[in-house]
Write a structure and sequence with these properties.
Strand order of the largest sheet: 1-2-3
Shape: elongated
Low-confidence stretches: 1-5, 318-324
Order of helices and strands: HHHHHHHHEEHEH
Mean pLDDT: 83
Largest sheet: 3 strands, mixed
Oligomer: single chain
Helix content: 55-70%
Length: 324
Amino acid sequence: MSASGGTKAIVAALGANLAIAVSKFVAFAFSGSSSMLAEGVHSLADSGNQALLLIGGKKAQREATPQHPFGYGRERYIYAFLVSIVLFSVGGMFAVYEGYEKIKHPHDIEHWYWPVGVLVFAIIAEGFSFRTAIKESNALRGTHSWSQFIRRAKAPELPVVLLEDFGALIGLVLALGGVGLALLTGDGIWDGIGTVCIGVLLILIALVLAAETKSLLLGEAAGTDEVKKIEDAIVDGDTVTGIIHMRTLHLGPEELLIAAKIAVQHDDTAAEVASAIDAAEFRIRAAVPIARVIYLEPDIYSEAKAAKGPDPEATPGGPAQSHT
């Protein structure tokens, strides 16, 4: 997923949310609607989230250092995880609390045209932001469904913006429903109920984002298509006759680490093996440009060893060795 595509969607969402946040707070000041206050805080939190994503993208571009030899690509995952925390606490929990208070102490909505007008404006602005995020995502998701795209995307920005904008649009509909029912029935409790529903929605979206970004932070392998391209690129059928085992790891959205033990001919010279490894690395980078760090270890293929299966003691996450 390109950083430029993500940045375009983030900037569009940031501009829309700042304008919406101001209009919602103005509507709250004139109407006293708790839905407007919750939605205003929601838009303000979203604006802060988009700022966090931009900061994370900027920090991720730093050059590698001796202390961080694989670079700072995962900064984007860290800031995306912070977004889920902000959305949960500032957006979701605040809305639930505000809605609960409004249900306990309901009051009439004053100057109803303010919240209604702002909600209509907000739906249009959020729709523009959501359309931009969809357009940028469509260029990358291919034949995957939206749920698959969000689960499999290695760059966090577009999934975050998509879920935020989707949640914002649903929240605006809930707020409009709460305000509308409060005006029709003359009972301000409906405004509070709409606010609670907004809070629950934001909490659910925050949990989904947290789960996805946690997986990225822990380290995800390359996608199935990329793995197949790497395997095809490594084996040349001459010096490199096969792959004994291979591991891949995303160091960042656009940085991939590849470590593989490759089978070579038992009578090849060291110079021939070294030349074959260089050629394999060149083919890998041509097939998968995001392959930045490649470690290939030559070995002699043994049918007897292969028949025993992988060694769990040598596998990351396998049983710990006992020390006596």
